[in-house]
Amino acid sequence: MERQTVFSGLQPTGNVHLGNYLGALRNWVKLQDSYDSVYCVVDLHAITVDYDPQQFEQDRIEAAKVLLAVGIDPDKSLFYFQSQVPQHSELAWILGTMTPTGVLNRMTQYKDKVARGIPANLGLYSYPVLMAADILLYHANLVPIGDDQRQHLEMTRDLAERFNNRFGEVFPIPDALIPETTARVMSFADPTSKMSKSDPNEKSRVLILDSPDVVRKKIKSAMTDSDPEVRFDRDEKPGISNLLEIMSTCTGESIDNLVAEYGGSGYGVFKEAVADAVIAELAPIRSAYTQLDDEEIARIMRRGALDARTRAEGFQQTVRQVTGLAPV
Ligand code: ATP
Ligand code: LTN
Question: I want to staple 12 with a disulfide (CB 3.0 to 4.6 A). Which of 59, 196, 286, 324 is the partner?
Answer without folding.
Answer: 59
